[in-house]
Write a structure and sequence with these properties.
Elements: E1 15-18, E2 21-24, E3 27-31, E4 38-42, H1 45-48, H2 51-71, E5 80-82, H3 97-103, H4 106-109, H5 113-130, H6 136-156, H7 160-181, H8 190-208, H9 227-234, H10 240-247, H11 251-257, H12 260-270, H13 274-278, H14 290-300, E6 311-314, E7 319-321, H15 325-331, H16 343-346, E8 347-350, H17 352-357
Antiparallel strand pairs: 1-2, 3-4, 5-7, 6-7, 6-8
Helix pairs in contact: 3-6, 5-7, 7-8, 9-11, 10-11, 12-14
Length: 361
Amino acid sequence: MPFLGRDWRSPGGCWVKSEEGWKRSQFYREVDSHGEKQVCTRLQEQLNGNKIVEDCEVVAKKRKKDHFNINTQNFYKEKWIYIHKGSTRERHGYCTLGEAFNRLDFSSAIQDMRRFNYIVKLLQLVANSQLTSLSGVAQKNYFNILEKIVRKVIEDQQNPRLIKNLLQDLASALCILIREMGRCVLVGNINIWVYRLETILNWQHQLNNLKITRRICNGVTLSDLPLHMQRSILHRFSDGLDIISLGQVTSTLHMLSEDRYLWKKLCQYHFPEKQFCRHLILTENGCVDWKLMYFTLQKYCPKKEQYGDALQFCRHCSILFWKDYCLALLFKDTGHPCTANNPESCCTPVSPQHFIDLFKF
């Protein structure tokens, strides 16, 4: 019978017993006159009859299946996982960061605009500190999700600055790991990591050359709105760089983006008031320069994180899950099999840093 090996170079050979001992049967391929069909024919077919042909078909199916498994990303797509930090009679071992990264459905989450920034921030934290703690499959899944994010940004032409920062941190981390650490901490062949670094540099080049096309809109634009509505939209921005970018569109938006009250509210939202006195910056007129204070304070203090949607953690069940708000409103479904009397009171949102801290034992 043939040896069904997983070696991609050959599916194995068929051995035939003869008077001189066991010999490996040789085969060749015949192409019909139309060139449409290839038939595997062996020299010893007359010895074993149709069995060799059947074995050849099994080998071909096995090789095709292995080729399909190699080229297919077979990852879990679950909405929740159980976080267990110790062995019990029912469960052995503990849940790792790599396991959570494989099983939670991050690939579908990046398609949701509310969860996009959350996933990008999580990937950035993993790139800075937890990349070597991921298993080989988790690392493969990590770069698979990253590739989907880059493609989405290039196609939609949205949020390029977030991805540029992520790729910059990831490229710096990989350079340090490849040059200084090397094979001691990296899972897999060192050439794979070099190839991944080259891929990241290629993505950076594509994003740097990205030209955002202006879409023709026949309806009402932002400039057509009343002045108080434009000011109200600017007050809903939580990032100072986004306010500056929007202020470069028109002269009216530039005037609104330089409003002192706007930058004061932004400083009060992100930073505690006790930091204001330590980094107080005044203008020539003796007034507080809130815009300059904002960019000064973010160098010393972390900004307040704000996400449209985030992972939820149930304290009663110790389950980490994505919450579907549509199902929650229609069917009162919490998104995980909760046994608490009041599941809503047991669920808390998980920040990206808290997500990583859950797996530090």
